[in-house]
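Fold this: Beta-galactosidase
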Amino acid sequence: MSEFTVGDEEFLLDGRPVRLLSGALHYFRVHEAQWGHRLAMLRAMGLNCVETYVPWNLHEPRPGRYEDVAALGRFLDAARAAGLWAIVRPGPYICAEWENGGLPHWLAGRARTSDAVYLRQVERWFGRLLPEVVSRQVDRGGPVLMVQVENEYGSYGSDAEYLRWLASTIRAAGVTVPLFTSDGPEDHMLTGGSLPGMLATVNFGSQAREAFATLRRHRAEGPLMCMEFWCGWFDHWGAGHVVRDPADAAAALREILECGASVNLYMAHGGTSFAGWAGANRGGGDLHDGVLEPDVTSYDYDAPIDEFGHPTEKFWRFREVLAPYADGPLPELPPLPTQLAAGAEVELAGWAPLADVLEARGGPVVTSPVPPSFEALDVDRGLVRYEVTVPGPRQPYPFLARGLRDLAVVYVDGERAGVLTEADERLEEPVAGHARVELWVESLGRVNYGPRTGESKGITGGLLHERQYLHGVRARGLRLDALDAVDDVRLRALPEDGAPGLYRGTLDVNGAGDALLELPGWTRGFVWINGFSLGRYWCVGPQRSLYVPGPVLRDGVNDVWVLELERAASAPYVRSR
């Protein structure tokens, strides 16, 4: 049993000064069989602590239906076994480039405020989650030193009553270790996101002295800590791959430590946003209100430990910076994970058109005067087929999907007519009546940061023929998790034209291990191997392959499913890195 406290200038463990050298590692972005290796890599880099968020929507996909909340506890146990302390950031909002910032799609009330309906939902969730933390606090022999209240709240709101309620609810659940907030080093963010008497930390990627000077204007006392040192960054589909020079990142880390501060590397190891859980941002400068920018599946983050768990040049530079602050010699690196021994091609053997997949695994058909949202159809990740009739006879007029989020493949009387996006809501060719129009709308990830977090998905402004709204819309949703088991989908022979649909194949592996999956010529969709969802692929890049954790593969025959939403091509294959 130990006592961790916040002193006037330093953190104290059993009364002795301690500096937290932490690294972010999200248990939900790493295969559980690989937690031990990744945590050992943190120790070898010179860290003494691990930090993790907790995504509410992953663990409560429907109200009152919980899924593996105990995973957090198992991860904290693994951290303790690895000799690391732990910082837990339970939200309820986490950002993290994660779907909807971790908030469930089904939330009622005004999220991230003191709205009574929302608070009741948070209270129920925390009542289920926080026991995993309480029993693992440092004063009970566990690794947990601190727990965060909300996340970067000053970037979003200024409801101090909400923050105070969260803090009291966390305390009432039995959390006794110090609580803290984290915000950008700007006056309005620290004013809106911090609470009097509670440790405030700041998040930044450079200019540590200026950031801490801003923090000191708000907190004259208390330890300095950069809760998120952005040593890399994330990627968006259709944009370039973002990297940060290792020497520049190491110099920024050194500056933080020279200020006498504690630090949390964000990310120490990014991992992967498996199963379509990657979020999205809105462009448009500081307002975060512009075009949708969906995040790629890889959360490698240009981190010092890459997506495969290997050390990068940044790792070795950080290790050199961190070593003088360690209690003794740094541990040696653990053995690298096993790599796939030999590449192999997926042998495709069957296919089902999207309509058949929807019939077998979709939700109920809903008929509405206006297009229902994804939320109304209980679809978090996945797609919705909207159908509407253009009455006739009438001459050709423009067809529009107003307020479209995010992307729609459109068919007119069964023939592909084009792809619509938020920026281009009008079909290129006019539509004459009588006609049947189908729009297969895919969510590319809910916004995870900024004022448009929590916005609805689907067709939000109606379907129009010329200026006339079309009513009697039929809609049916297909949740992505409904495809984790697809034995009831009847398969046909492979199509000759690479038509969209669900493809089944097998992969014969000799020497299983970490691998990359390539889908040359395929357009956009999702992949499952042995029931494990690898996430989204998309030919627009910059990500060109999907990471396959070694524990997912097995020697011999492996089951592969690919949901292609536009056009398939040659057989996928796996290879070593």
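The CA atoms of residues 63 and 106 lie 7 Å apart. DSSP finds eleven helices and 32 strands in the chain.
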